[in-house]
Amino acid sequence: MRKAFYNPARKLSAALVIVLFGVTSIAQSAYARSAPDSFADMAERLLPAVVNISTSQLVADRQGPDFQFPPGSPFEDLFRDFMERNGQGKGGDQNAPKKHRATALGSGFIISADGYIVTNNHVIDGADEISVTLHDNETLPAKLIGRDAKTDVALLKVEPKKDLPFVKWGDSDKARVGEWAMAIGNPFGLGGTVTAGIISARNRDINQGPYDDFIQTDASINRGNSGGPLFNMDGDVIGINSAIYSPSGGSVGIGFAIPSAIAESVVEQIKEYGRPRRGWLGVHIQTVTDDIADSVGLDEAYGAMVAGVTKDGPAEKAGIQQGDVILRFDGKKVESMRRLPRIVAETKIGKSVDVELWRDGKKKDVTVDLGELKEDQVAENDSGDQQEQATPEASSEATIDALGLKVANIDDELRQRFNLTADTEGVVVTDVDTASFSAEKGVRPGDIILEASHQSVTNIDEVQKAVKSAQDDGKRTILMLIETSAGPRYFGLTLDKKDK
Questions:
Q1: pLDDT tens, 297-327?
Q2: How confident is the model at residue 62 (pLDDT cuts 50, 70, 90)?
Q3: Same structural domain for residues 347 and 412?
Q4: Residue 249 resides in a domain
């Protein structure tokens, strides 16, 4: 790959980070196997289908020292001569950045005799020239067919003079923890390198994208392995090596691979359409915590809570509402919130899908005609239709001891204090007891309470009544929809203050 890079926004700890330059994935066959006597036969058969990928792009040079000598300084002439010798100053634009061509290395694997090659998106991202070196050292220019940043997959095409050796996709869903796997790649630009290990874990979410479902392996993966294949013991590709968990940038035995169950379908769509096509439901979701499950009457915390519904989207047309919990989608149980986006994305566009919801303490079934996800829909933050609400007649404030909150009806003074817009309605939180569960859950002054127990609230009396009703019913928590600085979210707030 081009370079090892660290993204501070994706740190897993102060010392350890996800590094997108190589990973190992581990997969299995349908049954447990003993350790192989040797990987030699399989390596000999598979090595010719693994390629080295080289990319290059023009990048701006650093523009000299960030200082100038004062007029009349004895160093002024020397500095001017230095700049002119380097192509800046006299006869040219001192501010015009110079450029040089930067190169980088990665790995890939051939999936068809006519030259289709799979790699990571981050291996070729930003490149204006891509070349592929085959196992016999022949180098061919490569064309980018398409890529998908969300799953970090890219598809290339070369024009070979003869049929190329290629590998087949395997079924990563059958890979079991503890099974053997083998990785081949181009670590540090050394060329075809074989490493082996086991599948250490499945379904890892490393916060790299919305569809994270990585295979974790302890096979040695290093810089330049990115985009290379992870094989099961049948010699089928069950993963694309993509990232490692490391304090130093080198392999410490924790690598991650994109499972073939995700990568294969993305590659096929890129091949057919030039881009991936994903199903779209049109909801904004959040995790169902234990407190939220308790407040809505679920026996266990699973599913995905609908925090918002996109206007005129498939979900709204099907009758899905803000506050619903999606339990099953197209016959598949939604074990956790992060599982739903992948299920939806993999579902055929236009399909009529049965969705099981939890609403008002009981299950409800609806049918959704799935739409197609567009790039501009990914960043939407539509919180659903807002109900017409009456402006409170008088401004007042009250303390809700059970929640550790002080709340108030919105008036001009509060709009100014918390920088609220003229059309903001609801009940504003003016203070939060730092010893309360509400503070622990993240409720902050300036947040706006929109709903309590699935009922819209427009003044503090309605909030107080909802809290009292929940207490009278013997509930431990109350569900509230609160507009935070990050958007609307449901909170399962405990009806008791923490001990100080």
A1: 999 999 999 988 989 999 999 999 999 999 9
A2: low
A3: no
A4: yes
Domain containing 37 equals 6-55+105-273
Instruction: Report whether 322 contacts 483 (CB < 8 A).
Output: no
Q: Are 305 and 481 in contact (CB under 8 A)?
A: no
Percentage helix, strand, coil, to 5, in the chain? 20, 35, 45
Residue with tokens 């003229």: 422
Distance between CA atoms of residues 406 and 445, nearest Å: 9
H-run or E-run covering 468: helix 460-472
Q: What is the CA radius of gyration of the chain?
A: 28
CATH number reported for the structural domain that contains residue 404 in this entry? 2.30.42.10
- Look up residue 35 and give its DSSP letter: P
Q: What is the helix (H) or strand (E) element at residue 9, kind and residue range? A: strand 6-11
CB of 449 closer than 8 Å to CB of 480: yes
pLDDT of 15 > 80? The answer is no
Question: Residues annotated as binding site for substrate?
Answer: 122, 152, 224-226
Which listed residue (25, 29, 54, 122) is catalytic? 122
226 is catalytic: yes
Q: Greatest CA span in the chain, whole angstroms?
A: 85
Centre a 10 Å sphere on the Cβ of residue 183 and count the other Cβ atoms it contains: 30
**135 annotated active-site:** no
Q: State the residue for tokens 């890129």.
A: 270
Choosing from 107, 131, 152, 246, which is the catalytic residue? Answer: 152
How is residue 399 written in tokens? 């303390």
What are the backbone dihedrals phi and psi of residue 185, each rounded to the nearest 5 degrees, phi first? Answer: -170, -165
Between 104 and 410, the higher pLDDT residue: 410
Same domain as 183, residue 49: yes
Output the CA torsion sign for 256, 174, 348, 358: negative
- Catalytic residue, chosen from 226, 242, 383, 436, is 226
How many independent structural domains does the chain possess?
A: 4
> For residue range 475-494, what is the model confidence (pLDDT) as tens digits?
889 999 998 888 888 999 99
Per-residue pLDDT, 77: 57
pLDDT tens, 205-262?
887 777 788 999 999 888 888 999 999 999 999 999 998 877 766 778 889 999 999 9
Take residue 462 and report the two structure tokens written for it: 């309605």
Dihedral, 329, 331, 337, 343 alpha carbons, nearest 10: -80
The bridge status of strand 99-110 relative to strand 50-60 is: antiparallel
